[in-house]
Write the structure tokens for this entry.
Amino acid sequence: MTNATQTRVSKTDGQVTAIRSEAVVQRALENACRIANVCDEYRGLDTVVLDLTQVTPLFDYFVVTTGKSRRQLHAIADHSDDAMRDVGSQRRSTSGYETEWVCQDYGDVVLHVFSPDARNLYDLENLWADAPRVDWQAAVNNA
């Protein structure tokens, strides 16, 4: 829900969980689409951007993609860092760099780069099924 002062109010079970400026949410969306584009450039498979703004106050967007090899997982993760650094956003944390699931936290956006088996096992799209998918390709093309 957006009010007249250009802030977004998120509610869960009728309780306010987050109040954010519309500009901050828009910047998070742009960053999520930027990361999804990097995933695509480095041949990530089935890249999805999930809009979590009305689901949780912890972060705004998940970017989920699949790489076929550890080298590809690392390339996607490393070049996402570069793209975010170019716009002044530093990675806050990373985990799983030596596993089949690399998770990088950029604050409002979290990148998940999976091997095919790990993506099937953890099934984040189903876990967060109430989060709408963003048409990130259209957003990138319109930018």
Summary: Residues 25-142 form a domain with the Beta Polymerase; domain 2 fold (CATH 3.30.460.10).
